Amino acid sequence: MLWKTQIPVAIVFAVGMLTLIQWFVPHWPFDQIQVHTTQWFDIIAVFAVILGGLNLLKLQLQKVISRGRDWPYALVTIVGFLAMMVYGFSPVGVPEGIRLGDHLQANGSHFRWMFFNVFTPLSATMFALLAFFVASASYRAFRVRNAEATLLLVAGIILMLGRVPLGAKMTAFLPHFMQLPTVQEWIYAVPNLAGARAIMIGIGLGMVSTSLRFILGIEKSFLGGDE
Amino acid sequence: MKRKRFGPSRLSAAFLLLVPYLAFAQDAGPDGGEAPAAYDPPPAAVTHLTARDAPDDAGKHIILEFERSADDAAGAADVVSYEVFRIDPAGIETSLGVLPVSNKDTLRLITFDDQMPGLVNGTEYSYKVVTRDASGSSDSKLDGTVRTSGQWFALGRFNMLFSVLMISFFILYFIKKAQRGEEIYLRPVAGLKAFDEAVGRATEMGKPVLYVPGIMDLDQVETVAGVIILGYVSKMTARYETELEVPVSRSLVMSNAREVCRSSYLSEGRPELYKDDMVHYLTDDQFAYAAGVDGIMLRKKPAACFYQGKFYAESLILAETGNSIGAIQIAGTASPSQLPFFITACDYTLIGEEFFAASAYLSKDPKLIGSLKGQDWAKGVVMIIIGVGAVVETLHVLGVLPFSLQPLLVAG
Known about the structure:
The complex is a heterodimer.
Chain A: H1 2-24, H2 33-65, H3 71-89, H4 110-141, H5 147-162, H6 165-170, H7 180-189, H8 191-215
Chain B: H1 8-27, E1 47-53, E2 62-67, E3 79-87, E4 93-100, E5 109-114, E6 124-133, E7 137-141, E8 146-147, H2 158-179, H3 190-205, E9 209-212, H4 221-240, E10 244-248, H5 251-267, E11 279-281, H6 286-300, E12 304-308, H7 314-324, E13 328-333, H8 339-345, E14 348-351, H9 353-363, H10 366-397, H11 406-409
Parallel strand pairs in B: 9-10, 9-12, 10-11, 12-13, 13-14
Antiparallel strand pairs in B: 1-2, 2-5, 3-4, 3-6, 6-7, 6-8
Helix pairs in contact in B: 2-10, 3-4, 4-5, 4-9, 6-7, 9-10
């Protein structure tokens, strides 16, 4: 109980209060708290990465050894993982005259080649999928099912048309306040912004309230040892 | 003898010979080299150079202001740059940077923040600005000195301190009330009621439950909130003996989520069902993680997908893939830009504060429910302040009221 709950709660309280105080007290030494705690977090996170990497390797190796379902994918993961480890941490594939470490950014190193020719295109491919998903999601969102969906559809059409030259041309004969670019700007800047700000205020209050629950030890379930 | 007439043709020839000579004479120096260029005076120095200590800081920030040189007409004239120097009490000059002149600059007043290393709290400094053009430079020095001064309280944040104290008061007050056994009403939240339904559906179908606690680390309050909700979901999967899959993108989240899941399975009396590998690490990279989770979805076809945490552009990739496999999906996030995607693609979405309220709502713990009630009261006070602020500000702009609440309400 002491190690699982009380000491962690005390640490959360101390660090939480110090972080809160430093926000209101800019004077030394409080101005250093955020800088140092952020660095401590980074250091801890770096060591934790080893745990994550080992866990990934272990699970993928188990899949390959047991010839589980879709095991070739696991093999690709292991090969990719090990290749980047070797090119990142060893002198393999490091151009002559380049120091180990600097080779990560150096032209001609295998690490850089793998990063820009394998990793970056794959990431970009995933990101590009978003365009198709936006289309399919919009199709579902804009289906007329009820009054709210109809309102969303109408607002969406006005916004889309109002932001392209066609919309301006279509309504050029109307008074200025009825032209699509004007209407879309109003929808965007007034009802949309009002809704977004309401959500933001709720989020802000929720964050403050949740943080206070952590700091004051009211919420402890994230420590895992509360039961 | 008839005198030879000096006619127009001879005059023209003489002129033609004279022109190149004169031109050469202008180019040539006294020693036959290149002549000196026309005198280009150095640019006019900057004017109205002032410096002041920045408020609400640790005494390591000085704000300089000066007006551009008269020869700097927003880049049209020949001033090329301004270089700012700090002069310490020993008279040592340190260059703080060169400000190039740009055609885009239209303001005459330039503000320069000196937050460079070397500033010591409680020390007098002087400043100098050097204006340069193609041919020379001119200096402008600060009259006197400016003293750095650190403050023990950021006055500009007083309104935030007031808000924090007010919220804390309401939360603690309602926690006490809840602990005394007073019944506190919580409005039903559809997304939270659907948690049971989603896990139950997965159990009936014999398929796993997928839980994604966002892509950020434990330093984000959304991630911690997501891990807390995982505790309740894992209790349900333990109770119903349903497979749980939690791919994470941060190692620290993996450690924390494992601890939370282990505790849940233990509290449900099913420790034998818990396996460390149900919470597993994929990668820190955003889109590689999205690809990994999509792969898990397509291979394992989970019947219920939970997305609870902080998300960015991968939100729609995950939610649309989940939608394509027919899973019941419940999302919760405090990322305003991702909410529309989740609302579109998921069956239920916990919006902002609902997401933070989830743990209290699901736990039914009086202390946590009391804190929710306190949060609602704080929200009521904030709404009143916003309303009063809007009315007062409008009347001030219209000239009805001589004062404004803006300095009081805008955080520093």
